[in-house]
Design a protein that fits this description.
Structural class: alpha/beta
Helix content: 40-55%
Radius of gyration: 21 Å
Strand content: 5-15%
Order of helices and strands: HHEHHEHEHEHEHEHEHEHEEH
Distance between the termini: 20 Å
Length: 311
Amino acid sequence: MSSGEKRGWLSRLKAGLGKSSQKLTGGLTGLFTGKKKLDDATLDDLEDILIMADFGVPTAAKIVEQLRYGRHNKDITPEEVRQLIAGVIAETLKPVAQPIAINHSNTPHVLLMVGVNGSGKTTTIGKLARQFQQDGHSVMLAAGDTFRAAAIEQLAVWGERNNVPVIHKEAGADAASVAFEALQTARDQNVDVLMIDTAGRLQNKTHLMEELTKMIRVIEKFDDTAPHDTVLVLDATTGQNALSQVEVFQEAANISGIIMTKLDGTARGGVLIACAEKFGIPVHAIGVGETIDDLQPFNATDFAKSIAGTE
């Protein structure tokens, strides 16, 4: 990313996290008017603000403990509090900030894309396809969400837009057979990256798990090292419900990474911090808008400064 592109992304990130940042900084401003002593009551109120900003209880407690340890009963300004919060967030997120790495020794490198309906999964696949192409990789898509004709059509549109092949069957077809056909075709054509879409119906968790387990079994029979990445796409607007989604999909598909979308549409972006703290699963990328460039690799420091309002 050039310096100009970096500045453009940072401004989009800051704007995209504006609602989440305002939820936090608005509470801090109300709590710390001018300088204020950090007594126990103020620290309790601060912890409540952090929890209401979807940071999660462990992260909120960690931030409050750092303040208690270093600044208890001393004067402090809202800016100093924001700087400390940004530091703790960055420290929490840095271990999980890991981009997707395509391994060319895999033929193809298989990404199984999972997530509930409406999370932005199919759109994310389309955006990743373009970005992988820009990095010089050949790409193929597989429409494994066979329960929804609209999902198959949407993936086909992204295939046309990016000029990449899409393996699909009619709605209601067996998803595992779509995956197998795609794997064979991708290998025959020496495709670098194969992304497989999946159904995301949580209404019947047992059915979801059975279908994903079957698909993974078929993929492993074809290539015992695949899927090489199993990526969960999370919608930030769901707030703390995202944590239960991680648990469900971790049990069903042993996810290896997370992409969080729609951060621009919510004040609940703090849930990304709660996910990192609770699960420690790599966060590959985040999305703050509709365009291709609004999905970028996750950077812990940039995110921390944007959500804490220090940049």
